[in-house]
Amino acid sequence: MEKVNLKEKFSLFTTHYEPKIAGELNGQLVKLVKFKGEFVWHHHDNEDELFYVVKGSFDMHLENKVVTVKEGEFIIIPRGVEHKPVANEEVQVMLFEPASTLNTGNIENEITQRELQRI
Amino acid sequence: MEKVNLKEKFSLFTTHYEPKIAGELNGQLVKLVKFKGEFVWHHHDNEDELFYVVKGSFDMHLENKVVTVKEGEFIIIPRGVEHKPVANEEVQVMLFEPASTLNTGNIENEITQRELQRI
Questions:
Q1: What are the C-alpha distances in Å from A117 to residues A3, A19, B53, B110?
Q2: Would the pTM count as exceeding 0.90?
Q3: Using CB atoms within 10 A as the burial measure, which of A49, A73, B25, B92 is most buried?
């Protein structure tokens, strides 16, 4: 049973929008991801998703508003809600979501990640 | 759908070992808690528990070792594992755990919290 240091884990990768698995509990995964640029609009039919900003900030686009999520803040996106992260600068994010969650939700394209690396 | 600012939420209470609910997703709760002093040895029969340190540090006592968890680090305690948090100085912790989780696990005494405040 070892602790996980986020700074150390984030130093292990440089890619954007490719979540890595950093922990697992109760059928949920803790994922670490760097955002930069604009993601795709999508939703998750069966999973709520938590985004916690470890470093930096990003804009979560929702159908009727944009929420800027900054360091030390989190936002929960309930299942079914369309959303699109946009990061002008690189941001480090910790995700907490069910193991079944696909990064692009209902959309499948070249940025869909099926096999996530564990770090 | 609003974001949650941890610093702001932690400013709302001063008590120790009394978790507050700051978010809910997929049957799991995000709880914020301040530790100071020594908690009780306990385990959770059916729940894994994640402790993420937002500010400060604490010692997680386990049966055969002590893990010091510092700011920006988390530790996952699997179900069934005896543990006891000890904080020499006040520490701010974010917990991820199933809604069913009782703070004192298999132990029930005067510090058991059954009705958690939402903040």
A1: 18, 8, 24, 43
A2: yes
A3: A49
